[in-house]
Every structure is written in C-alpha cells, then in structure tokens.
C-alpha cells in the first residue's frame, strides 16, 4: 500500500482491523455468500468467481457492500428469494436478485412485539421453519417469536427462558424448535401445542458443567434424536429422548458454533481452528483459519451449485476463510 | 501466385530433392533429344534411366510413408476412443465410489451413535440382575412379614391368656373376699347372739 493514504482509506483500514463478522448466509443459487459484521454492514461475495480457475485478487473482495442495520448483524438466513437479516431488534428482508444488481433497498422490516417498548432487545438468532413458512426470532427479550413470512404477523411468543437466548435449532421430524440461552438451559418447544416439552439444564450435569466458564449455551445443533451444544459447559452430545449426555468433547475453549456434517461434528469458537469431531468423542482434525476467534460456520450445500460446495468460516476479523476441502484453508475472502 | 509458391514449398521445400531431380530429368531429356553421337545418346539415356529409377524409388518411399501415416492416424483414433471410454468409465466409478463413501459415513455415524448410547446404558446395572435383586428383596419382605404376623399372633394369644388368668384371679379374689365377709358377718351374728340371749 502506498505511504500516503487518503483519510477514507485510513478509516476503512481501521474499520477492517476492528471488524467482527457475526453471521453468514448462502444465496439460494449457491453462488454467493453474504456476511454481516459488527458495523451493521452486509457484504456479498461471489463464491463462483473466487473459486474459478481465473480468480484474481479482486474476486476475493465483495461484489457489493451495504449498510443494513444500525447495530451489528447478529444473524442472517436465506429463503428461496430473500435474505433476512437481524441484529438491533428488527428483522429486515432483502431480495437476493436486487442485491446482486447492487440495488440494496430493504424490502420490509418488522419488529416483534416486545414487552417493553423502551429498550429494544437485540435479536441473536433467526430460524426458518419451511413447513409452515415462518421465521423464528430469539434474543434479548428471552422469548421465541414466530412470524408468518407471508403475512408478516407474529403468531406465537414462547416464554420460558429466564435470560437471553443465544441460538436456535430446528428438529425436522417433529415440528420442534430447540433454543439455548444464557440461563444455561436447552429448551425444546413444540410448535403445534405452543408448549415447552423438554428442558435440559446442561450446567446441572457434572460431566459437562464448567462453572468457571459460566453456564451459557452459545451454540446448538440437532440431528433427529441427537443434539450437540456448547458454550460455557463443555461441548456435549446429548441423546434427546433420554436427556442423557453421551459424549463429552475434550475442548477447553468455549465453542460458539457447531454443526453436524455427514458423520462428523464441526465446531469452532475461541481459538483459530475448526475442530472436526467424531461422534465417539475423538478429535479427527483441527484446521486453523485466519481469524483469532471464530463465530460462524457455513456449509454451502445448495444443490444448484455443487462446484461451490465449500465450508466458510468467519469470526473476529474482516476475513471469511474458504475451505474447499475440509482439510485445509484454500483462501480467504475479505471485506 | 501465392498458392503456387505455397504448393511448391509444400511439395519440396528443401529444394535439394525430387523437384530438382525432375527438372534435371526434363533437361537431360532435351539434351538427349539433341544429342549427336549414338554413344553420347546411349550414355545420356542410361543417365536418364537411373535418374528415373531414383525418382520412382523416392516416390515409392513417399507412398509407403503416406500409407504408414494413414495407418498410424487410424491407430491413434482407436487409442483416443479407448481413452475416452476409460475416462467415462473412471468418472462413473468415481461417482459410484462417492456414493459408497457417503453410505459408509452414514453407517459409521450410526455405529458411533449406537456406541455412545451403549456406553451410557452400560453404566446402569443389568436389567436381569436388578430384577433378580428385586425378586430376592420381595421374598425377604414376604418372609419378614410372615414372621411379624406370627409374632403378633403369639402376642395376641398370650395377651388373651393373661387376660383370662387375671380375670380368673380377680374373680377368685372377689369370691374369697366375699367369703371372708360372709364368715365375718356370720361370726359377728353368733357373738351377738351369745352375748344377748333371746328372752
């Protein structure tokens, strides 16, 4: 870089230095990746361009960046036409087709009915329920709100958590939602009967609780009868029906994102590496990324773009690492 | 004009070969026609024949080379097709193997899930044994309650017997007291009668 930089360039460089990427979402066509950061910006990267054989340095920069929210973008999900983003108490919708043409105007914005209208609590997690075409939002007000995507009305408010909610997961077979929060409990909600059907207080189990880290549940993933959760307590695999912890994964650092993939469990958190675990508790691989801490993992499994099937991870830096093969980091995209 | 030059270069680019030989042949033919003596003519004729046979030899060679090239082309075509087939076959095999890998991973995942649950179950005691223990405890309980019953019965019987005994004693006591009283009264009557004779 040239020694004399304009103030805007200096500002941008400083911004990048202090950037944290909280959320990612893959476009319905599978060729683009959206990343949301702590400044409320969303950047769209072209995965197909960056992965192609003629990729240059510019292909690793965003195709378009826009200011989406006033606060950090904590969570994003994509439907088959829209990108939904949330952070500062509101959820906004954008049309993927429009964003790709650089027309970044929000389609709509909604705010769930909060109990107090003074303080607007942040939204930490979004979850799509395709069977009923609705969106679930959860965050600082300790409730799960369901919103019908067609009408925009808020249909249910699930109460039970005693502290804010960090993460959500959907159990496909039964229409059940799992939520994990600061109060240390993983709660299962049945969407049809609108009740809490099961509660697992992770910190009460000796095998996995780590009081020095706290009891918060930072990440959650589910695969039919099994659930894996982590955070303050150790990363643990649970058998849901019997509410028993079956495997404790020996990882000291609190994990902030976890997902099931084929026969493995991938997790990331404090620390550079993406950890690959086998269900038996063995650490199969630890692959370092370029950020000192990781907050989100995204697996692009969109059937329309099998050539863009990559794992992208992001966290406390302005970079999104792209793993073409789970074994190593191929390259990084950057804001 | 270009085309002619090209064709000529193609046919005999190096200039030191057949084209020159044919030109020489034509020149020597003309010389032979214009030759004077028979000897000269004859020697010229011989020279022409040798040049001609050289040309024929060269042509034969070229024809053979051409043939060989044709056959080599055919051969390459065949090999090319075979390689194409084997590439397609390899692609299919790769797709098949990928499917098998996915299947194997699913199986491994199921096995590991099974193992995880099995480990937890192992921690709990065997159902058989627990049932047996339950049975044994049940029997003991029954036995003890029998004992308790029989002891209670004994106690009841003794209590009753004591009660009968005590009430009999009491009755006897009463009877004795009554008798004593009666005899006292009788004695008193007798002494009063002796002290006070009837008039």
From TrEMBL, chain A:
SUPFAM superfamilies: WD40 repeat-like. Signal peptide: none annotated. It comes from the Eukaryota. InterPro entries: THOC6 (IPR042626), WD40/YVTN_repeat-like_dom_sf (IPR015943), WD40_repeat_CS (IPR019775), WD40_repeat_dom_sf (IPR036322), WD40_rpt (IPR001680). It is found in: Nucleus speckle. SMART domains: WD40. The keyword Transmembrane does not apply. WD repeats lie at residues 158-199. Keywords: Apoptosis, Developmental protein, mRNA processing, mRNA splicing, mRNA transport, Nucleus, Phosphoprotein, Repeat, RNA-binding, Transport, WD repeat. Its main location: nucleus. Component of the THO subcomplex of the TREX complex which is thought to couple mRNA transcription, processing and nuclear export, and which specifically associates with spliced mRNA and not with unspliced pre-mRNA. Plays a key structural role in the oligomerization of the THO-DDX39B complex. Component of the THO subcomplex, which is composed of THOC1, THOC2, THOC3, THOC5, THOC6 and THOC7. The THO subcomplex interacts with DDX39B to form the THO-DDX39B complex which multimerizes into a 28-subunit tetrameric assembly. Component of the transcription/export (TREX) complex at least composed of ALYREF/THOC4, DDX39B, SARNP/CIP29, CHTOP and the THO subcomplex; in the complex interacts with THOC5; together with THOC5 and THOC7, plays a key structural role in the oligomerization of the THO-DDX39B complex. TREX seems to have a dynamic structure involving ATP-dependent remodeling. This is THO complex subunit 6 homolog. It comes from Ictidomys tridecemlineatus (Thirteen-lined ground squirrel).
TrEMBL record, chain B:
The keyword Coiled coil applies. Keywords: Coiled coil, Nucleus. Pfam families: THOC7. One of its GO terms (biological process) is mRNA processing. Residues 177-199 are annotated as: Disordered. It is found in: Nucleus. InterPro entries: THOC7/Mft1. GO terms for cellular component: chromosome, telomeric region; cytosol; nuclear speck; THO complex part of transcription export complex. Component of the THO subcomplex of the TREX complex which is thought to couple mRNA transcription, processing and nuclear export, and which specifically associates with spliced mRNA and not with unspliced pre-mRNA. Required for efficient export of polyadenylated RNA. Plays a key structural role in the oligomerization of the THO-DDX39B complex. Belongs to the THOC7 family. PANTHER family: MAINTENANCE OF KILLER 16 MAK16 PROTEIN-RELATED, THO COMPLEX SUBUNIT 7 HOMOLOG. This is THO complex subunit 7. The gene is THOC7.
